[in-house]
Amino acid sequence: MTAFIPAPGQASHGLLVDDDELYLRTLQRSLARKGLETVTASDTASALLLARQQPPAYALIDLKLGTESGLALIQPLRALREDMRILLVTGYASIATAVEAIKLGADDYLPKPATVPMILRALGEEDDGPADDGDMEPPDAMTPISRLQWEHIQQAMHETGGNVSAAARLLGMHRRSLQRKLAKRPSPERDPSR
């Protein structure tokens, strides 16, 4: 893993893309305390607009951006700046999505909520400063099966272009069963510090 180094005369800044405004602001403040300046966007169009104005040294992209997918940002961002470090974060981690993200050009794939130390490691940065309460690593925990199942279903829906019947066949289940599962989005992960 190589650390990102800005080109001569180019400021080192990052792009944070997430539709969760509270998480976005908290992460931006935490990274600023570590000396990393960032701009934020909550959708793909805003993210690309900001990136075209000044291509960032790194981008931290959430997989699920409302109805959009963060995967759609990887290749356009890579085209803007070849040496950009692109990190995909998701609360719906799966091997299939990780493989797809890496194939599209992401440099790393992190579980959400990604902590500042995790992000710094993925960027190849050293974290020399004192730890903040908000920077603490959560205890290791397995991803709940409902989240893995949801991600697997979403991957099948993506591969079939949103066709529920084709996705159901791909998953080996009845179409109505798949429709019921699609109506039940898994609850957010519990914060292990609570």
Number of domains: 2
Task: Outline the biggest β-sheet.
Answer: 5 strands, parallel
* Amount of helix: 40-55%
Low-confidence stretches: 1-11, 130-142, 189-194
Main sheet strand line-up: 2-1-3-6-7
Structure commentary:
This protein is an alpha/beta fold and 194 residues long. It has 2 domains: 13-133, 3-Layer(aba) Sandwich (Rossmann fold), CATH 3.40.50.2300; 145-183, Arc Repressor Mutant, subunit A (Orthogonal Bundle). The protein has helices spanning 21-33, 44-53, 71-80, 95-104, 116-123, 145-159, 164-171, 175-183, and strands spanning 13-17, 37-41, 58-62, 64-65, 68-69, 85-90, 108-111. Helix 2 packs parallel to helix 3 (71-80) and helix 7 (164-171) crosses helix 8 (175-183).
For this entry, give a set of tags.
5-stranded parallel sheet, 194 residues, 8 helices, alpha/beta, two-stranded antiparallel ribbon, disordered N terminus, Arc Repressor Mutant, subunit A, 2 domains, Rossmann fold
Secondary-structure blueprint:
Layout: E1 13-17, H1 21-33, E2 37-41, H2 44-53, E3 58-62, E4 64-65, E5 68-69, H3 71-80, E6 85-90, H4 95-104, E7 108-111, H5 116-123, H6 145-159, H7 164-171, H8 175-183
Parallel strand pairs: 1-2, 1-3, 3-6, 6-7
Antiparallel strand pairs: 4-5
What is the compact description of this entry?
The chain has 194 residues and is an alpha/beta fold. The protein has helices at 21-33, 44-53, 71-80, 95-104, 116-123, 145-159, 164-171, 175-183, and strands at 13-17, 37-41, 58-62, 64-65, 68-69, 85-90, 108-111. The two termini are 33 Å apart.
